[in-house]
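Deliverable D4.2, example record:
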Amino acid sequence: MSTTPHTSVCVPGTGRGRHLLGTQTTETPVRISDKPRDECGVLGLSTPHGEGVAQLAFFGLFALQHRGQEAAGIAVSDGKRSRLHKEAGLVSTVFTPEALAPLTGYHAIGHTRYSTTGSNAERNIQPFLVETMHGPLSVAHNGNLVNATALRDELLNKGFGLTATSDTEVFTLMLAAAGGQTWQERIERTLPAWKGAYSLVILAADQVIAVRDPWGFRPLSVGRLPHGGHAVASETCALSTLGCVDIDEVKPGEMVTLRGSEIERTQVLAPQPKGARCTFEFVYFSRPDSVWDGKSVHHARQRLGIELARESMVDADVVIPVPDSSIPAAIGFARESGLPFNDGLIKNRYIGRTFIEPTQDIRERGVALKFNALSENLKGKRVIMIDDSLVRGTTAGPLVKLVRDAGASEVHMRITCPPIKHACHFGVDMGHDNDLMAARLSVAEIQEHIGADSLAFLSLEGMMRAVNDTESGEGYCNACFTGDYPLAVGDAQAKLAFEGVIA
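Output generated by the structure prediction step:
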């Protein structure tokens, strides 16, 4: 299945943009993984020379592909006009040499998407590009506004026309309508109205501006490009891919402005005293070669495995991971337990997203497509299988069965985080509370459901020891485990709350 690309050119003062719009897609991809869905990745860069800015954005987005596989987009400005190309699909398929060639300029932002507010329809693909009285404005976003409904209604009441169902469009239109002499002033005036998680990249005619919410939910870092200029990205792995040096975290509540070789950093909102970094970035989302909050993601995952072994050891013969994100934790578990580590499952990394009816039979078949068992490493063995999370429980059972059918005499499942009992409202698609297996069933009932010989989750204290060197969760958001949200979420909308109005 394919969609037509969306290409736009926005020229200041013309009052119009030229658009090629493709058909919208509404098919639901089958879930062949029980993981929380990645939230999105954002990237921004500014250079004094403008050489290969779109190509740099492409490589940066490629490094962030794990954060979203539904769509990708890049907007570029040469100081006078902005150009945009975005399309459903992976970065490597969206940005052909022909698509990149027209994207010339000095400043760029990019986005890889998994939908957390609004469907995966083409109208919601980011970045958003609009023309304003102050020139072209393009915005891309990682996170989720809990007050998006109220802000959207306010825009409608003021006479704004909305073409998408994403909270990123709300950001964009609010900024376009804000008063102030500069984009920095308009951002500062608008920021207090936004409640929730946001790591934003904003492209104006002659600059890139990045801003992060005062809680620090979603990661964002900045670094200096090797040949001049600077870049910001959701993860340090993307900055490393671009050869950046002097990499530093964008602080919660901080605004960073990039203009060619210049960088300006301003604290525009007071950071929340306790902070709320998403712990799941360490458990699953972030690439293992990323660093966040001064901590190596790979090292933290190994420590998750160590803590898990200390808490829930069982007599066994071998430790295997569910690849790929669980590999460091399985290594840590094996080291701490003294048991051998081995491959038990081989992951097929090339199956892509299959657009077919997601029946239970198909889901189970999808697991078989994604994983093969190595019977020579499993036959007759008591196996400890390490996984990073268990959300809906749709794939844990088929994986246990796959390992058992390969000859394992026992299968003991170990999870590197506590049971997920509450939905996330800050940019992670976990579904509703009722969709979560641990919200409905006890650990013993989950064990019976998935067919494991034993099941254990890492405690909250153990997880925080691994991530933060203390049992305290202060500074991190653990609401999906505890239900203790750092800010009120009573007004949070469902993912598809705005769908159906715009067909």
